[in-house]
Amino acid sequence: MAQSLPSHPIGVFDSGVGGLTVVRALMDRLPFENIVYFGDTARVPYGVKSVSTIQHFTQQIADFLLQQDVKLLIIACNTMAAVAADVVRAKSPVPVLDVIEAGAKNAIARTRSGGIGVIGTPTTINSNAYARAIHQLSPDKHVYSQACPLFVPLVEEGWLDHPVTRLTAQEYLKPVFVEQIDTLVLGCTHYPLLKPLLLDVTGDRMQLVDSALSIADQTAELLQAQGLANTSRAMPDYRYVVTDVPVKFQTIGERFLGRSLNRIDRVEL
Amino acid sequence: MAQSLPSHPIGVFDSGVGGLTVVRALMDRLPFENIVYFGDTARVPYGVKSVSTIQHFTQQIADFLLQQDVKLLIIACNTMAAVAADVVRAKSPVPVLDVIEAGAKNAIARTRSGGIGVIGTPTTINSNAYARAIHQLSPDKHVYSQACPLFVPLVEEGWLDHPVTRLTAQEYLKPVFVEQIDTLVLGCTHYPLLKPLLLDVTGDRMQLVDSALSIADQTAELLQAQGLANTSRAMPDYRYVVTDVPVKFQTIGERFLGRSLNRIDRVEL
């Protein structure tokens, strides 16, 4: 593989559309960076699959993006970051950032009480990856994790402010409210779309940490430090690669991205 | 391939655990038949995938089961039946039954008003396969279809009698209640687990058609007619094949099957 250049794209990947919340944060924070996004829409969702299957699929995607000469890999899927980040890091010739590390760092910086809650898919939560990442950086923090398997289908149904979603959130957060927690990590890239509803349900009990915003900040720092920030002030190049026909990806994706989606290609892995 | 024998197993397949409601109905109705079940748990759910992807995956599974010398193929997944049954039938040397045809026939036999409602995953409903199957057999019937994308995740969460599920059902069925419908087809193999709740929400407005029961009746008729019913009165052989590690399949599967699950093998397609 050739040497990474500032003009090379950032590679962002996810099991489906969710990672577009990360792309959106990157576009806002770093408006001149080229980005190539990979969504494994033929095999989504990963949250219900086994560790070995997720590791296998994740490495296939990382290999594909490295062939596109990306200068940085961002694992925008919490499930993949939870169980496959080490595998990708071990093999990657370019830096690898992931949403779990980013969310963990941000939560540690922001908690006052030392009590951090994490919500995510069952695989992310069962992997215990957030608690491990937080404790590695700051062993004295109290972490309470709660799986919320219905949030992804509710977001994809578009019920962002529906009584069913509100009732579901109240049910899932009931045990979180009992703990001494002042900071809640949204440990799934779908969840930023539920932020208004979650802020309403949590009230002033806790602040929310959005890992999409956290990872955009981390990316800016890393590119600067390594001399890899794009110096061109031309319109950046945005490409989207998916594994299934892109109709649904486009419809739902534009809601996630908050802008129109062009240049979508389909590949088979 | 060798000639089919009565002692050969029935091959039942689905994208995940849902088809086990069909296996359960077969075990009750035909207690001496050998059964091999295939659940594509590494790639579940199919309901959100494109037609061409579903056709490709479905044919892979049918080929695998034919290699196991099945005497009959049962497509127990409504999504696969909706978009890939023709492809499988065109290539199969053994008879192929599918849940859509079975549900359509049963609904036609049972409706008095001629108004039939169908609920299912978005792909099943968008394919319009139930309406086509019903109109092909009985063109004067009025069919109203409604996608219920949240029912599968709600069943898998185990919220079979939860206020969230009740509220979701009321929301989805609202437009169905406006139509002149006396018969509602459960067009997804997960939905039989919601039967008590759905009966409560629909009240005496309509009867429910469970395609798992319908297909077990159809299977009994077909095996009898073709001289393929197993004559052995020995304990039958039940095998389960999945594409992901079977832990979750076993836990959720036993709820679907209503009995313990043994002999689960994992394969890669």
Automatic annotation (TrEMBL), chains A, B:
GO-annotated molecular function: glutamate racemase activity
Keywords: Cell shape, Cell wall biogenesis/degradation, Isomerase, Peptidoglycan synthesis
Transmembrane segments: none
EC number: 5.1.1.3
Keyword set includes Cell wall biogenesis/degradation: yes
Binding positions (substrate): D14, S15, Y46, G47, N78, T79, T189, H190
InterPro entries according to UniProt: Asp/Glu/hydantoin_racemase (IPR015942), Asp/Glu_race (IPR001920), Asp/Glu_racemase_AS_2 (IPR033134), Glu_race (IPR004391)
Enzyme class: isomerase
Gene Ontology BP term (one): peptidoglycan biosynthetic process
Keyword Transferase belongs to the record: no
Entry-linked PROSITE patterns: ASP_GLU_RACEMASE_2 (PS00924)
Summary of the function given for this chain in its UniProt record: Provides the (R)-glutamate required for cell wall biosynthesis.
Family, per entry: Belongs to the aspartate/glutamate racemases family.
NCBIfam families membership: glut_race
Stated name of the protein: Glutamate racemase
Gene (name only): murI
